[in-house]
Amino acid sequence: MIATSRLYWCLGGLAVWGLVAGILPAAFPLWVGACGVLLVAALADLLWLRRATPPTLEREVPDSLAVGVWTEVVLVLRSYERQTLDLELFDKPPSHCDLDGMPASLRLPGDKRARVRYALKANERGEHQFEPCDARIRGPLGLLFRQVEIGTFEDEQAQTFRVLPNFKAVSRYALMATADRVGELGIKKLRRRGSGMEFSHLRDYRQGDLSRQIDWKASARRSKLISREYEDERNQHIVFLLDCGRRMRARDEHDGGDKLAHFDHCLNASLLLSHVALKQGDSVALATFGGHELWVPRQKGPSGMNAILEQIYDLQTTTAPSDYSAAARRLAAVQRRRALVVVLTNLYDQDNAELLEAVSLLRQRHVVLVASLREAVTEQTLDEPIYHLDDALRVAAGHHYLSHRDKTHQELQGRGVMLLDVQPGELSVQLVNRYLAIKRAGML
Is the pLDDT confidence value at 107 over 50? Predict the structure, then answer.
C-alpha cells in the first residue's frame, strides 16, 4: 500500500494540532479523537483495497510499428467491481520508447469498460515486448493507493510487437504517386514523354515530338503521323551495399532532430528507393558489411518489399570497422550481372585509399554510387561563438575535419565515382532523384 498526498496532509495537520495540544491541554482529547478517526479511515481504505478486484487490461497496438513514428496505443480496461474505481495508469513499453499521454488518470465505473489512449514512438528496431502496466487503485476515502500490475498474458506473444524501418515514407510516396504529386516530396520525375530507352508502343503524333520518334512506315500505312513511345528500361538491377560499422551509430538528436541513428536513415532511404525501383520493374538486392555479412538475394515484383523488410527489420550496427575492400570482393563474387551498386556509409578521410580500391573493383562491371552521410554536429560547430581557447580549438578541429572530408570527396569524384554527400534527413529524396537520373541517362 502507498500513502496518498491527502493522508500526508492529514498527518501534517495532526502534527501541528499535537503541538497546540501540548500547550493547551484542553485540546488534547480532541487531538486524540482526530487521530482515532484518521486511523479508522485509513484502516477502512486498507480493508477495501485488499478486497478490491483489479481491473483487467487488453492492449491494442499494431503488430508492426515504424521506427521514429508516433503510433496510437489503446488500453481497454474492464472493472468487475460494483463501485467506481479511481485509477492511475502507467504503461511500460521498452525503455527506448517515448510516450505522450502517460501516466493517465481515470474513473472506471463499476462493471464497465473504459478506453485510455496514448501515443508511443519506438526509437529502436527489432522484436520488443511490453511489460505489465502499473496501476494504482485509490481507496474510497483517498488515503491509500494499492499498486498492482495488470495486463499480464499467459501467451507472451500477445504483448510482443515488431519495430520496422520507417515505411511511412514508402506509403506516402505510393499515395503521392497515385495522385501524380511526388514532386511535393522533392522527387524529380524527369519525365519527358517518349524519350526513354525501351520501346513501349505506337501512338498518334503530338506537337513537340522529335522527328526521330516518328515511325514512317506506320505513318504511311495509316496516312497520318505516328510516333514511337519509349519508356525507361526495365529489368535492371539495384544492389545496396550497407555499412553496419561503428560510424553508423551516430545520431543528430543534439540539435533537436530525431533520435534515429544514421544507420536507420540509411535503412529508410534504401526502403524508399527499393519501392521506387520495384515499381519501375527493376530488381533489388542488398548486402551488408562492417560486422554483419548479410546477403538478401535479388527481389522483384510487389512481394519484393515484404521479403526485404523481413530480412533487415532487426538489423543493428556493430562496433566493428568497415572493410570496403572485403565487402567489394564478396559482392563481386555473388553479383555477376551489371547493376547500380549503392554504397551507404559515412566516409572519413582515412578511407580514401581503401574505398578507391573497392570502387575500382566494382566499376569493372557495375555503376557505383557512394552515399556518404554528413554529421550535423560538425557543421554546427563552425557557427558556434568563440569565447575561450577551448571554443577556438573545437571550431578549428571542425574546419580541419571538413576540409579533409571535402578533399576525399573531390578525389573520389575526380576518379569518376558518383557521390552523394548529404545530411541524414535528406538522404531518401536525394537517393531516389539520383537513381531516376541514372536511369534517364541510360547508364545501366
Answer: yes
> At CA 418, angle to CA 372 and CA 234, rounded to 5?
110
What is the C-alpha to C-alpha distance for residues 108 and 77, in angstroms, rounded to an integer? Answer: 8
8 A C-beta contact, residue 73 and residue 62:
no
Calpha distance 321→292 (Å, rounded): 11
Determine the Cα–Cα distance for residues 331 and 231; give it in Å rounded to an integer.
30
Q: In angstroms, rounded to a whole number, what is the distance separating the alpha carbons of residues 304 and 297?
A: 10
Sheet holding 56-60: strands in order across? 56-60, 70-78, 113-121, 98-100
Tell me the average pLDDT of the chain. 81
DSSP letters, 108-134, are E-TT-EEEEEEEEE--S-EEEEPEEEE
373 forms beta bridges with: 422
How many CB atoms lie under 10 A from the CB of residue 121?
Answer: 20
Alpha-carbon span 104 to 119, nearest angstrom: 12
Strand partners, 241: 287, 343
Q: Which residue has the cell 503521392?
A: 176
- Residues 46 and 50: their CA atoms lie apart, in Å, by 6
Task: Provide the percentage of residues in the chain whose pLDDT is more than 70.
Answer: 85
CA 392-398-404 angle, 5° bins: 135
Sign of the dihedral defined by the CA atoms of residues 380, 383, 385, 390, in that order: positive
The pTM is what? Answer: 0.70
Q: Where are the alpha helices (DSSP H) in 65-211?
A: 168-178
Task: State how far the Cα of 157 lies from the Cα of 420, in Å rounded to an integer.
Answer: 42
Answer yes or no: are the C-beta atoms of 330 and 293 closer than 8 Å: yes
What is the pLDDT, as a whole number, of residue 184?
47
Residue 177: predicted pLDDT: 44
Q: Which residue bears the cell 504529386?
A: 181
**Separation CA 284–CA 310 (nearest Å):** 14
- Which helix (H) or strand (E) is 150 found in, with range? strand 144-150
Strands 144-150 and 104-108 come out as: unpaired
For residue 341, the SS3 value is: strand
Q: Which CA distances in Å does 11 have to 14, 45, 128, 210?
A: 5, 16, 44, 92
Length of the chain, please?
A: 444
Q: How many CB atoms lie within 10 A of CB 18?
A: 15
Torsion angles phi and psi, residue 193, rounded to 5 = -55, 130
Count Cβ atoms below 10 Å from residue 339 Cβ, excluding itself.
23
